[in-house]
Amino acid sequence: MKKTHKRPGPDLSVRDDRVSQDDVLAVIADIDNGHEYYMSFVDAFKMNDHDYVVMYNYEPDDGRHEDPEIIILRSERHIDGEQYFLSIKNRKELDAAFDMFFQRFEESGGM
After folding, report:
1. pTM of this structure
2. HSE, side-chain direction, 13 A CA sphere, residue 23
3. Residues 25/38, Cβ–Cβ less than 8 Å
4. Total domain count for the chain?
5. In terms of C-beta density within 10 A (0-12 exposed, 13-18 middle, 19 or more buried), how is residue 101 classed?
6. Residue 44 domain-assigned?
7. What's the longest Cα–Cα distance across the chain?
8. How far apart are CA 23 and CA 42, in angstroms?
9. Please, which of 12, 15, 81, 105 could form a disulfide with 85 given CB 3.0 to 4.6 Å?
């Protein structure tokens, strides 16, 4: 029996595109409206039995762009193998995920 359920918020799927050994870009397609977003991967971690990914909107550095803003999404793999990223609507979950990311960032010497 196949379980189905509606996912909260917009669902995003990804196609990985490796630019170099150091940069990982993903093309994320919003399955609700079809828009594609180029995202640069920052971090991934597991917390409370959920997988999370941290990314920022990728734009080539031409000196005209503001500092990028990070986004944290919950990552899930569908039974068919497709990767999905979901917006985190619960403020407590989002705050906890940000705190975990920031702790990992500090421990890695990021600041």
Report:
1. 0.68
2. 12
3. yes
4. 1
5. buried
6. yes
7. 53
8. 9
9. 12
Q: How far apart are CA 103 and CA 110, in angstroms?
A: 10
Domain assignment present for 77 = yes
**Cβ atoms < 10 Å from Cβ of 73:** 22
- Tokens encoding 33: 């409206």
Give 89-104 pLDDT, tens digit per residue: 999 999 999 999 999 9
The 10s digit of each residue's pLDDT in 28-66 is 888 888 888 888 888 999 999 999 999 988 776 666 667
**21: number of Cβ within 10 Å:** 6
Tokens of 68: 């990028």
Lookup: tokens for 106:
């500090």
CA atoms of 45 and 102, how far apart (whole Å): 12
Distance CA 99, CA 31 (A): 29
Q: Nearest to residue 77, comparing CAs of 53, 107, 60, 97?
A: 53
Domain-located, residue 1? no
* 22, HSE (Cβ side, Cα atoms, 13 Å): 0
